[in-house]
Amino acid sequence: MADLHRSAKKRNGFYVKMKFFPPKNSKPENYFIIKYFKWFLWFSLSFYFFAKFLNNHETDTHTHTHTAVLKTTIINHSHHALTESIFRQHKHNILNDLKVYVYELPSRYNTDWLSNERCRNHLFASEVAVHRALMDSDVRTFDPTNADFFFVPVYVSCNFSTVNGFPAIGHARTLLSSAVDFISSELPFWNRSNGSDHVFVASHDYGACFHAMEDRAIANGIPEFMKNSIILQTFGVKYSHPCQNVEHIVIPPYISPESVKSTLLKSPIDGQRDIFMFFRGKMEVHPKNVSGRFYSKRVRTEILRKYGNDKRFYLKRHRFAGYQSEIVRSVFCLCPLGWAPWSPRLVESVALGCVPVIIADGIRLPFESTVPWSDISLTVRENDVAKLGRVLDDVAATNLS
């Protein structure tokens, strides 16, 4: 934020400075807001889209009730957190005049990729969903001189080699760099702030490092030209990590609202839950060794070995298009790490009324200061997978409500 302030001083016509920064040589009265301005606004805006998802995709009366309870809980926690930290001291709602300019890039940077239908529906599709939400949002401005933030809509996670293969994102850095060259040559706003008020989505395994393998992601690092910008990313951990060394906000992985709605129309959320513990996904009897790398740090393999013959555990290794219908029948849903700590199962479980069991040491969850994750999920350490059955039995007997 200090870099943003310093760069603002050097130029005329920086509209964020005009609106939110005090005159030169005066002591700022709202120093707290100034210091955390960018982070707070983008957190609020990201959370707004999350709440909008809940609001726009209610189904039957039962689903409406559960959604309303969840939404009320989230909003109450949000109100408390934001009021106590900011609005208690400031009567003016700084979100009232928030404006975001969405760059209209050539289609090769985004919509051309939608020829692959998976692009808008897979777990990395938040890059598409955020773009679409902003296009229709009341915070969007068509006048860049009035914008507080600038959204750069580049889709990098759409190019899959095969349905079961690794996403091919080797093109990501080149594509993003080309987009920055384009916007900086067409309009002055990138150059005037060195990209510090520009927002990208990095919805891949290791976020802004743009690689599926952690060691390669760390070695490559965050692209130099993005280091001043704001990154909305699904990757988040509580310890220091090179792929988080940028101003960022952890957002939920993408789940199609239409698929959730379709599932709940067929199987109400308060229906019978005859599956005690559910997991469907990649579980290797012998973890795949790709140049010395072991998938899921062997956690999923240990789950299969320990509980593969346990009748309480509904474990399936193969793909099934209707697997959400299994989630809505389940009491507990395992959310173990894959290559990266996060998983779309986290969102699917919550949306379909199954208690997520998070097995990913050090994971930082979406909107962690606002969503009461400790009240609606369980966390099990990776080294405690062998105790999983006992843990779930205890919770089911004492604290499932």
TrEMBL record:
GO biological process: glucuronoxylan biosynthetic process
Gene Ontology molecular function terms on file: glycosyltransferase activity
Cellular-component GO terms for this entry: Golgi membrane
Keywords: Glycosyltransferase, Golgi apparatus, Signal-anchor, Transferase, Transmembrane
Subcellular location: Golgi apparatus membrane
Record's bilayer topology term: Single-pass type II membrane protein
Main location: Golgi
Span of domain Exostosin GT47: 96-393
Family (UniProt): Belongs to the glycosyltransferase 47 family.
Cross-referenced InterPro entries: Exostosin, Exostosin_GT47
Name under which the protein is recorded: Exostosin GT47 domain-containing protein
A Pfam family reported for this protein in Swiss-Prot or TrEMBL: Exostosin_GT47
